[in-house]
Amino acid sequence: MLGWAILFFIVAIVAAVFGFGGIAAASAGIAKILFFIFLVLFVISIVMHVVRGRA
């Protein structure tokens, strides 16, 4: 999922360089959403690992 976020971020940067504002904004928004989903899943994974390790 982090790979998809990076891909959409790169698409947003390329679109911004060429002046496609709508595409850049949409790609940046998708990248931001995917990054935060990845971050939440990563934190949940760490918490579950710590909880299982102590049990």
Task: Spell out the blueprint of helices and strands.
Blueprint: H1 2-18, H2 21-54
Helix pairs in contact: 1-2
Report the principal-axis shape.
rod-shaped
* Head-to-tail CA distance between termini: 29 Å
Q: How many distinct beta strands? A: 0
Strand content: under 5%
Outline the biggest β-sheet: none
Number of domains: 1
Description:
There is one protein chain. The chain is mostly helical. It has one domain. The chain is built from two helices and no strands. Helix 1 runs antiparallel to helix 2.
List keywords for this structure.
single chain, 55 residues, mainly alpha, 2 helices
Summarize the structure.
The protein is an all-alpha fold and 55 residues long. Helix content is 93%, strand content 0%.
